[in-house]
Design goal:
Elements: H1 2-11, H2 23-41, H3 48-60, H4 67-101, E1 118-125, E2 130-137, H5 144-161, E3 181-182, E4 187-194, E5 214-224, E6 227-237, H6 245-262, E7 274-275, E8 278-279, H7 289-339, H8 344-357, H9 365-378, H10 383-394, H11 397-412, H12 417-446, H13 448-468
Antiparallel strand pairs: 1-2, 3-4, 4-5, 5-6, 7-8
Helix pairs in contact: 2-4, 7-8, 7-12, 8-9, 9-10, 10-11
Length: about 475
């Protein structure tokens, strides 16, 4: 009995013995078994959707006895998991919202200074009635002693960080530090310099003060609530210290400026040969033309090879389209010749001779393959094999089918071949009509985007003059 029950379990698609099943899987299994029993009691069949799904699952899991049941168990177990998780999220969210709605000891904490106004939506209730109140809680204001302490702290921070990388106020050669706030953002700072233009509002050095330097007075206005304090200091600003390439470039620019002024009336500008005790050699900079030439030389063979492959693909696609379009006319011609009493070989030879007599018409892939088939038969290849090779060379299903049919008719006789070819030609004509219709639909779809562009151009041409005249 135990073995039988285990076999039944395996038949019903239950998980294997070694696979652990969780609570949700067991619950899902019980629920599905209950639904299946009710369906069997009422003699109901599976819905169409489940039947279709069952066929797909059997294709995916051919070794499983009842893949539909196992799939339903897994799906329902996942639904139960997600439902329980959502319930937990709802409970946690409800608890959190209720906690946020509760006001402990009827006290609301004010925002810190500078954080703006806190908007609260409150509900006041008594035994008789309740009222909804929109309350704006202003930020906490500092006492006078706290404001003075914050301003002192801000002055210390500004004084300590003002010089940044500079060593002394008597020699400023790099940017200064002008913060917009101090004391953890509680004090606002506004900067100004005299004379204007040598130091920017963020502390960056701007105008060149010259080698003698420039004395710049710095003033900062510190504000906290309604209290204001001024911070003032003076610094000597010098040109930035240059080293390495920057210094070399500056010396070159000065030497070129001197040479330009000295030879303004001369026919040629003589470039300096010596700068800072170093001999200089001059040449025009590389504009990238040589690199572009090498790149073009490198890309040319790659592009050529790619174009050749593309040409082969285009030729193959063109040949395939020709074979598809010529199939119905070729089969009709073959059916008429065979119906007139000619053999299959004679029909092929007649079609090939007619093709060769056409001087001005372009070559077609179908006629070329017919001519090759005739040449194969003249070289001694058996007629049956020639027709099969004809179908394989065309490499399209209809031609392969036609070649196999012609080869088979040689072995069993050609009775009814004309009628078979005529029916095949009618079917090919219908397929060709469908192909032409699809090509027309594709062409129409491709024309939508150009038509939209043209409409946009027309709208622009009409609307721009109207807008300009307003």
């Amino acid at each position: 009995m135990k073995r039988k029950s285990r076999a039944e379990k395996e038949k019903r698609g239950r998980p294997r013995r070694g696979k652990r099943r969780g609570l949700f899987e067991r619950c899902a299994e019980g629920m599905i078994d209950r639904v299946d029993r009710k369906r069997q009691e009422k003699d109901q069949t599976l819905p169409k959707a489940l039947k279709s799904l069952e066929g797909q699952l059997k294709e995916l899991h051919p070794g499983e006895a009842d893949p539909l049941r196992a799939h339903r168990i897994r799906k329902l177990a996942g639904i139960l998991r997600i439902t329980c998780l959502c319930l937990l999220v709802v409970l946690a969210g409800t608890w959190a919202i209720l906690q946020q709605r509760t006001i402990e000891r009827n006290r609301l904490k004010r925002p810190m200074y500078g954080q703006g106004v806190l908007a609260e939506e409150l509900l006041a209730a008594s035994r008789e009635s309740e009222a909804a109140i929109d309350l704006k809680v202003e930020a906490r204001r500092f006492s006078k002693a706290e404001v003075e302490e914050l301003l002192d702290r801000a002055v210390e921070e500004i004084d300590a960080g003002l010089l940044r990388e500079n060593e002394t106020r008597n020699e400023i050669r790099s940017d200064l530090h002008f913060p917009e706030t101090a004391a953890d953002g509680l004090v606002q700072v506004t900067w100004s310099t005299v004379p204007y233009g040598y130091i920017g509002s963020s502390g960056e050095l701007r105008a060149d003060p010259g080698e003698k330097g420039m004395l710049v007075n710095i003033q900062a206005e510190l504000s906290c609530q309604q209290n204001i304090r001024l911070y003032q200091t003076g610094v000597m600003v010098y040109p930035p210290a240059l080293t390495g390439k920057a210094q070399f470039r500056r010396e070159l620019e000065q030497a070129l400026k001197t040479a330009e002024s000295e030879s303004a009336t001369e026919e040629y500008l003589v470039l300096p040969e010596n700068v800072g005790g170093t001999t200089i050699s001059w040449q025009r900079r590389d504009t990238g033309k040589l690199a572009l030439l090498f790149l073009l030389c490198l890309l040319a063979p790659i592009g050529y090879a790619s174009r050749q492959d593309q040409a082969v693909r285009e030729q193959a696609a063109r040949r395939r389209r020709e074979l598809e379009m010529d199939y119905s006319s070729f089969v009709w011609q073959l059916a008429l010749l065979v119906g007139a009493g000619m053999t299959i070989r004679g029909s092929f030879m007649r079609i090939a001779e007619g093709y060769r007599k056409q001087e001005n018409k372009k070559s077609r892939a179908t006629h070329e393959e017919v001519w090759r088939t005739v040449l194969d038969m003249e070289r001694g290849v058996s007629e049956s094999r020639s027709y099969e090779r004809f179908g394989r060379r065309c490499a399209l299903p209809q031609y392969i089918r036609l070649g196999a049919q012609l080869s088979a008719n040689l072995r069993k006789g050609s009775r009814g071949l004309a009628e078979t070819l005529a029916a095949e030609a009618v079917s090919a004509m219908e397929e060709q009509k469908n192909m032409v219709r699809k090509a027309g639909e594709t062409a129409g779809t491709r024309m939508i985007f150009p038509m939209i562009l043209m409409m946009m151009v027309v709208l622009i041409v009409l609307m721009v003059p109207a807008l300009l005249s307003m």
